[in-house]
Structure formats: structure tokens, C-alpha cells
Amino acid sequence: MQINLIAVGTRMPAWVDEGYNDYARRLPRECALVLKPIPLGPRGKSRPLAHALHEEGRRMLAALDARQRVVALDVGGRSWSTAQLAQQLRDWLGAGEDVSLLVGGPDGLDESCLARAQQRWSLSPLTLPHPLVRVLLAEQLYRAWSLINGHPYHRGG
């Protein structure tokens, strides 16, 4: 199984790339995490925000395979504890299908992305900077994998 992190934003600070890569490398091949960055939609006074979101959404949907499970990261989604994320990961691995996690840019996800998703996952009721979400997702997926496999990395309850 492959987990695709389809995220808006192509130029991240070095600490984001380093943090993401550190955790992504720890995951085994059967649970590979692959980043697919999507360019930020054009914004400006002459371009409405809805146009930028639509363009980002179009690019995100084009990066999907029809057979993938799609999970939208959305503040209105369900929160999962670490144990619940581990169960989700176990279910995804058991289904044998690739999973794509959609992470919007500073203005969130286009409605077309939310409509395509089979699940909506909220990392927090807080508004998180979208670069930080990449690192957080990679770490939490590694933690969930650790929990499933009895690895000592996960020590929480």
C-alpha cells in the first residue's frame, strides 16, 4: 500500500522538508508515504479566491487514481486518537488499496475535493499552518505504524 500525501504548496522551508522526510523514510515499503506537492492556485486582486481554490482542487483530483481511498484533511472532519489512527491504518493496509490524503493550502480545500473524499479527518480544531501539517501527518502515520507493529517509538496511552 502507498499513502499519497497530496498537499498544496511546492516551496517549503528546509525544516518542513527535513521533518517530513525523516518520518517518511522510517515507514516500510508496504506502507510507503509519498509526497505529491500541488502548486498554489493564483491569488490576487483580479482573481477571486474561489478561482484559486478551484484550480488547486482540479490539480489535486488529477493526481488521484480512481481506485484510491481519499481522505480529506478538514477541520470539519472527525478527530482520531492515536489508537483510532492506528486502526484506520490497519484497515487501509488490510484493504490493500492506496490511500490519498488531501491537504489544502492556506485557504483549505475546494468543495470538489471534499466531495471526492470517502473520509474527512480533522487533525485539530486549531488552525494549523499547512507546512506544519506535512510534518505532523508523517509523524502521526509513523506513530500509528509503530503502535500496530509493537515498535517502542509509540509509548503513549
Summary, kept brief:
42% of the residues lie in helices and 20% in strands. By secondary structure, the chain is an alpha/beta fold. It has a single domain (2-148), classed as SPOUT methyltransferase, trefoil knot domain (Alpha/beta knot).
**pLDDT < 50 runs, ≥5 residues:** none
Q: Quick one: CATH class? A: Alpha Beta
Strand count: 5
Q: How big is the Rg?
A: 15 Å
Count, helices: 5
Head-to-tail CA distance between termini: 27 Å
**Helix content bin:** 40-55%
Could you explain how this protein is built, in words?
With 157 residues, this protein is an alpha/beta fold. It has a single domain, classed as SPOUT methyltransferase, trefoil knot domain (Alpha/beta knot, 3-Layer(aba) Sandwich), CATH 3.40.1280. α1 packs parallel to α5 and α3 packs across α5. The longest helix has 19 residues.
Task: Give the tags.
globular; five-stranded parallel sheet; single chain; 20% strand; 5 helices; alpha/beta; 157 residues; Alpha/beta knot
Q: Which SSEs are present, and which pair or pack?
A:
Blueprint: E1 2-8, H1 14-26, E2 32-38, H2 49-62, E3 69-78, H3 82-95, E4 99-103, H4 111-116, E5 119-121, H5 130-148
Parallel strand pairs: 1-2, 1-4, 3-4, 3-5
Helix pairs in contact: 1-5, 3-5
